[in-house]
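Structure in, sequence out. Go:
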């Protein structure tokens, strides 16, 4: 009888873990994928790193580790995976022609080329910023997260995050005007 009760507890706990993981996955998969795609400009690599990120999340959940801030956990894992990827990869020059930008097919050729050029300038300017500024700008403007979500992801107060966002945008504007 005790074995049956123990088995039911384990199954309900397993179901809870699966539901918890599914909820986090559904809420964050697109955000994490876009974040990695923005950083890497490679759909294949973005898919691989996103999958590995959620695999690490599942590993922690299945071990019973309590994750209080799943979004922050995921961004920390994916940032570490990106760092590991670039450490292992030979550093080579990235051609702006090789970068894939999403361009609306309804636009004219001139407008599409102009937009691609503007995006290239912004990407170069973002790359020149220090990581905290770049990360906060990316989360807030590209991922369109709320300020409180960004603050949780970078593990800072909302006030400090707002200040970093403001300073980062000033630096970005200054670089774009140069």
């Amino acid at each position: 009888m005790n074995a049956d009760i123990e088995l039911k507890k384990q199954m309900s706990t397993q179901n809870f873990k699966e539901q918890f993981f599914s909820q986090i996955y559904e809420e964050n998969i697109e955000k994490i994928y876009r974040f990695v795609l923005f950083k890497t400009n490679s759909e294949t690599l973005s898919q691989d790193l996103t999958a590995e990120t959620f695999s690490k999340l599942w590993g922690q959940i299945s071990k019973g580790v309590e994750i209080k801030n799943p979004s922050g956990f995921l961004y920390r894992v994916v940032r570490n995976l990106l760092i590991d990827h670039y450490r292992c990869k030979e550093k080579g020059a990235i051609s702006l022609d090789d970068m894939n930008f999403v361009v609306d097919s309804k636009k004219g050729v001139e407008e599409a080329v102009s937009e691609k050029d503007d995006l290239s300038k912004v990407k170069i300017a973002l790359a020149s910023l220090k990581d905290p500024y770049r990360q906060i700008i990316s989360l807030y403007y590209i991922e369109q997260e709320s300020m409180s979500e960004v603050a949780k992801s970078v593990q800072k107060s909302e006030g400090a995050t707002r200040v970093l966002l403001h300073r980062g945008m000033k630096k970005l504007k200054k670089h774009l005007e140069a």
